Amino acid sequence: MEEIDRRIVTLLARDGRMSFTDLARETGLSVSAVHQRVRRLEKRGVVRGYAAIIDHEAVGLPLTAFVSIKPIDPAAPDDAPERLAHLTAIEACHSVAGDESYILKVRVASPTALEDLLQQIRASANVSTRTTVVLSTPYEHRAPEVDGELPSGPDA
């Protein structure tokens, strides 16, 4: 990936609403050149989308927790993500190495809501859980500094 494309990706990661005019000013390119490059980055899948960052406390979901899950029956099919997809309180599901199979990031309104969600997770996926409650988040959603080679080609 060219240096200018890495700069565009870094700028968009910091501010996904940055205008083509601002991107052009920051990169020294014309607006049309920036537009073409952004569209190409989107088409290649380097830029996969744009999202709003929500204040979860403001929308009534102040409690964040990480829930590690492990199948009760190790011989059971590895289908926990599919079995848990309907639980919208699960913000992210990460397959991990180690004792657990997955780590879920969840957001809920209260400790009671977390307790209810844990019961739903156990029942839906036939798993045991280990939960870590977040006390505070000094930073999150940090934009990467893109400085290495990014994948290219049709599958990138």
> Which overall shape is indicated by the principal axes computed on the Cα atoms?
elongated
Task: Note the total helix count.
Answer: 5
CATH domain class name of the largest domain: Alpha Beta
Roughly how much helix do the residues carry, as a percent range?
25-40%
Order of helices and strands: HHHEHEEHE
Instruction: Using the CA coordinates, give the radius of gyration.
Output: 20 Å
Per the CATH scheme, the topology name of the largest domain is Alpha-Beta Plaits
Strand content: 15-25%
Q: What separation lies between the terminal Cα atoms?
A: 11 Å
Low-confidence stretches: 150-156
CATH homologous superfamily designation of the largest domain: Lrp/AsnC effector binding domain/regulation of amino acid metabolism (RAM) domain
Overall average residue pLDDT? 92
- What class would the helix/strand composition place it in? alpha+beta
Total discrete domains: 2
CATH architecture of the largest domain: 2-Layer Sandwich
